[in-house]
Specification:
The chain has about 230 residues and is α/β, with parallel strands linked by helices. It has nine helices and twelve strands. It has two domains: about 5-125, Response regulator (Rossmann fold), CATH 3.40.50.2300; about 135-230, Arc Repressor Mutant, subunit A (Orthogonal Bundle), CATH 1.10.10.10. The chain has helices at about 10-25, 35-45, 60-70, 75, 90-95, 110-125, 165-175, 180-190, 200-210; strands at about 5, 25-30, 50, 80-85, 105, 135-140, 145, 150-155, 155-160, 180, 220-225, 230. A five-stranded parallel β-sheet has the order 2-1-3-4-5. The structure holds calcium ion.
Length: about 230
């Protein structure tokens, strides 16, 4: 049971979301305006937000950005955000903000899918990020990552990684030299229980390659294994 804030200006969708999230046992708060939603988030942060992208008052991206910028209040800045978007092309933008949304769903989506995503994010927030007890430091050649401080270095220079990029890199370093399927990565890095959108993995791998590969278009470390997934080479 969690305190969930739903921000959505489409009345019928808002009520469908409320019905389903309440039935799943959550305490639900509703909001239809972007500015009001930001006030609610800053004043009394929920355990999770389902946030529509297009809203009157202030759009979902701006809300997301402002919430993540509240670094002096981790309860606010770390709130799990599941973004609702109308178009597939917005995926990069939604996940790619400085510290963006944790997940997204493209309309129309099934309530079953929404509930699965919400559950995954709540579980992940409970775990505090990475599953299991990882070692304090992981290395591979000139890559070093410090799990406790969540910092990563390449040739001694700190890498600017987004949260999920860090989690993904840490997972690759924990399981080198084996093929990791997109489904396994979604389950262990993203916390999904059922199959999610594997493009999420591909998008993050692309970003990660740009940061850890000498030649991102001809990757040596994070290799694609056709039809199977990805392989990290130390
Ligand atoms: Ca809308």
């Amino acid at each position: 049971m969690a305190d969930v804030l739903i921000v959505e200006d489409e009345e019928s969708l808002l009520h469908t979301l409320r019905y389903n999230l309440s039935r799943a046992g959550h305490d639900v708060r509703l909001c239809t305006d972007g500015r009001v939603a930001l006030d609610m988030l800053l004043g009394n942060p929920p355990d999770l937000v389902v946030l529509d992208l297009m809203l009157p008052g202030m759009d979902g991206l701006e809300i997301c950005r402002r919430v993540r910028a509240e670094v002096t209040n981790p309860t606010v800045s770390h709130v799990p955000i599941v973004m609702l978007t109308a178009r597939d092309e917005e995926i990069d933008k939604v996940l790619g903000l400085e510290v963006g949304a944790d997940d997204y769903l493209t309309k129309p989506f099934s309530m079953h899918e929404l509930l699965a995503r919400v559950k995954a994010q709540l579980r992940r927030a409970d775990m505090g990020g990475l599953a299991g007890e990882p070692p304090a430091q992981l290395t591979a050649d000139d890559l070093v990552i410090d799990v406790a401080t969540r910092r990563a270095y390449r040739e001694g220079v700190e890498l600017r990684l987004k949260r999920r990029e860090f989690d993904l890199l840490a997972y690759f370093l924990r399981y080198p030299a084996q093929v990791l399927s997109r489904e396994r990565l979604l389950r262990n890095v993203w916390g999904y229980e059922s199959a999610g959108d594997t493009r999420t993995v591909d998008v993050h791998v692309r970003w990660l390659r740009a940061k850890v590969e000498a030649e991102p278009t001809n990757p040596r470390r994070i290799q694609t294994v056709r039809g199977l997934g990805y392989l990290f080479v130390r």
